[in-house]
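Handout for the seminar on molecular recognition.
Each group receives one record of this type.
Step one: identify the two inputs.
Step two: read the structure output and locate the region that could contact 1-deoxynojirimycin.
Step three: write two sentences on what you found, then compare them with the reference statements printed after the record.
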Amino acid sequence: MNSIEKQVEEILSKLSLKEKIGQLNQQETPVGEEVESFKEQVRNGEIGSILMSVGATAGNDAQGAVNVKFYNELQRIAVEESRSGIPILFGRDVIHGHRTVFPIPLAMTASFNEELIEKAYEDISREASNDSIHWTFTPMLDLSRDPRWGRIIEGTGEDPYLGSVFAKAAVKGLQGDNPADKDRILACAKHFLGYGASEGGRDYNRTEISDYTLNNYYIPAFKSAVSAGVKTVMSAFNDISGQPVTSSKYYLTDILRDRLGFDGFVVSDYDAVCQLARQGVAENDADCAELALKAGLDMDMHDKVYLNELENLVKSGRVSTDTIDNAVRRVLKVKILKGLFENPYCERREYDISKHREDAKELAAESVVLLKNNGVLPLDKSANVGLVGPFVHERRSLMGSWMLDGKAEETPTVYETIKAKSEGSVVSVNGTGLSWDSSLKWMYNTDVTVLCLGESWTATGEFRSQAEVSLAPDQIKLIEKARSTGKKVVGVLFCGRPVAMQGIAENFDALLLAWHGGSEVASAVADIIYGDTVPCGRMPMTVIRESTHIPMYYNVTSSGRPVNCYYGENAGECYIDSLATPYYPFGFGLSYTEFNYGDIKCDKKEIALNELKEGKKFKISIDIKNDGEFDGKETVQLYIHDKLASFMRPIKELKAFKKVLFKKGETATVDFEIGFDDLGFYLPNGEYTVEKGEIEVFIGKDCLTDRKITVLIK
Ligand code: NOJ
């Protein structure tokens, strides 16, 4: 037994059953008249954790600022007035920023820059920990192929490898090497498992996922979070093929703990335990509590079902004290690891917010994807610019949803940042209630029209799915009007999701996807528009032509009939009435400079399977030259295709990437190593296998690259 285990046992041995159950109970912050009775609950040892927000969909509503004094007072009651003296764990949804707001996670992923993502989460944890927060419900690692799903903004898109890279960066950034550090907070990998596959993109909907698909697509990011040392996991609302995850021992224990090796605690999603009755697998609250606890769900968020039911369940013999003790052990262990017993209170510390703003700007800039450029960008600073559209003076939506503590008034607008840089004239026409004639007039008098369009933050987030992923009709009309002036038209899209581009992208001379990019996105956009920053973001999801094409994702298996439309094969025939290729593929993004790729080289043609297992690797390299007029960053992507396997393998799967800065005119060699962990796949039973045979290795700018070599596993 190590010292932490000893400490856990010591605390546990002194707890009554009621106090143990209290540790498994999380309630939300009390308001108004609830406060006094809540304090009494704390005194009685009934509150193990507090959810520092109010309501089921916290990210959709304005939440009050954190009241540190109030939380310190609740903590004081727990530590000094409750019999056990166990501190409370405070958790809040700090999803992509606290005071400083970073890009939404989907946009962070578009940066393909794990170092910046890690740094962002380090900044976030520094700010959040200074506001009583010990624990955040981030990262959301739900792979999704459906931009209709409102929560797409919180995830990392359609690729398991990218998701795994993000998972590691976020967990390391938040928890650091030691989560007990006062500047760090605990991470929570959520929602385990399959939530991003909600049918039709309708939130909370059922999912149908085979074990093969779960293992190869949905589980890897969670595996990566566990390897990075994530201390908590949140279970998902959904069922998978008829089995609610909340009550599934198979998912929460057999896979999460036994297979992936997770050793922290599992918290339910909000009210998910009592919802087992609505899902039709439990008759009443007692059944719900019994099923969830026995499945391996340790802490019950908000619905008080554990608090109200577990004592009787133990007394009646339906739940053993051992089962309760094991859950409590896991919660106590995480509290100890967080250093709560030494430092239960929040003591405010100074931090350099201007440094965080700089980091937010750098990440926002690297997240922006240049989708199209006919040479109009970057603009000359002397150009006369007309800024038109509903996002010219917008602040709040730039920060996105699931943002509880940023301040819109501290978020500059596009108008402000362009005006600050321009040496020409800048006129603006705000989009809301547009008068077409006046906007046209402005457009004729300028050199270039910059249309600032997008979707409101209220069109994204939890329980905010959309049947059609497009721009609003009045914005599309505005694009057509701008086009009709014959002037150059640049589009800047502030969206939470990639929208369907047919009928939109054609009308622009240049198009930037700036996402809901956070506190500093408008500054980043101005730098890019004037060429002070060279764009380098890449699409973490396919950009579709029409909403009716969903789902469309790059890592599909090959069809027996020649209909691999994603890769252009009979793409005009997959639908009789529509071209079934992506508008922009996964991994796509342009630059102001031009990168030319040489041939792929590999140090060997073949490796025996046994040698691969022992750690031998293929060393692969490629020479790339920056032939353009700017210094710039290139994201070099490596995909593989297992040509012949016992299960169908994807036509392309991303296995590595490197983001490299090339000086103008510079040639550099980019190296990769791929080995056993990259060349195999998971069988339905979760076993990882590498099979003998040929593997095609592709390197390029996006998933459509056909630059390849073939290596052999003997
Ligand atoms: C429900 C959401 O699904 C979850 O992601 C969030 O952390 C909780 N509510 C708490 O707000």
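Reference statements: The chain has a mean pLDDT of 96. Residues 593-713 form a domain with the Immunoglobulin-like fold (CATH 2.60.40.10).
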